[in-house]
Amino acid sequence: MSRNIVVIGEGKTKIVKTNPNDPATVFLYFKDDITAGDGAKHDVFEGKAVLDWAVSRDCFELLSRRGLSTHYIDSPEERVMLVRKLDRKLELEVVTRRVATGSILKWGDYSEGDRFDPVITQFHYKDDPLHDPMLDDRYVEFMIRDKDAWEYSSMRQVNTQVFLVLEAAFAQFGAQLVDIKLEYGIIDGELCVIDEISAGSFRLWPYRSEAPNLDLSNVLSELAPEQRLDKDTYRMGGAPDEVLSKFRAISALTSRFKEVE
Q: Which of 89, 92, 93, 110 has its CA 20 to 30 A from that of 156?
């Protein structure tokens, strides 16, 4: 890479650098850092960056083949993505859920394994010190209806589409996409999925059998959360080798997304 590349931003898991050959694009460099609890828990696991990058590349390329708009352009080298530069970032995290687990069990009237059909989508204000508070659904509807806030309706629609594409892809390899958290930006007036799509972006539980019954109102008996393949392993205190083995398992699955029709 050119010596003229300049760091213009750094987050918990990535560094953003300029592209001197094209000011309309930037490079995202993945870091080995891993965090949880809104950044309260922080470690560095050597090899994590490569896995996050590979999974993100595979997911973004699948979404591109499905015609969904993202910031992704290419992966010029390991750990690096070339992406379109944002005109405006939307400071929201958009979560779509198929199966109830995690924080929704603490504040919602749900049991672990309850299945949402159709999926549900919620908006969270992106602010770690405030613990990413959720926006009330009535307020979101008000913004769409009375304030012509098209971004909310578009994010809800796109998040659902992304979830369904990835859910179907993982299903071909015996795993249930439980939920997903995505971020968005505006590029040339268009809403785009941005940031990364990796083991920290979603929960993934293997099927218990080759032919699970996923039409049940609660699918916990059909899935294997104890074999989870996502960052919850780290959140729950898993050792570095265990966490990385889960991330490698996800990467092995997404590397086969090119087989998905």
A: 110
At residue 14, the 3 state secondary structure works out as strand
How is the chain split into domains, by residue range? 7-84, 88-259
Query: Does the domain spanning 88-259 belong to CATH 3.30.470.20?
Result: yes
Long-range contacts of 9-13 (CB under 8 A, 24+ apart): 12/39, 12/42, 13/52, 13/196, 13/200
The CATH number of 7-84 is which of 3.30.200.20, 3.40.50.80, 3.40.50.11270, 3.30.565.10?
3.30.200.20
Question: What is this structure's pTM?
Answer: 0.96
Chain segment 39-89, per-residue pLDDT in tens: 889 999 999 999 999 999 999 999 999 999 999 999 999 999 999 999 999
Distances from the Cα of 66 to the Cαs of 148, 152, 164, in angstroms? Answer: 28, 21, 11
Q: Concatenated DSSP letters for 198-253?
A: STTTEEEEEBSSSS--TTSSB-GGGB-GGG--STHHHHTT--HHHHHHHHHHHHHH
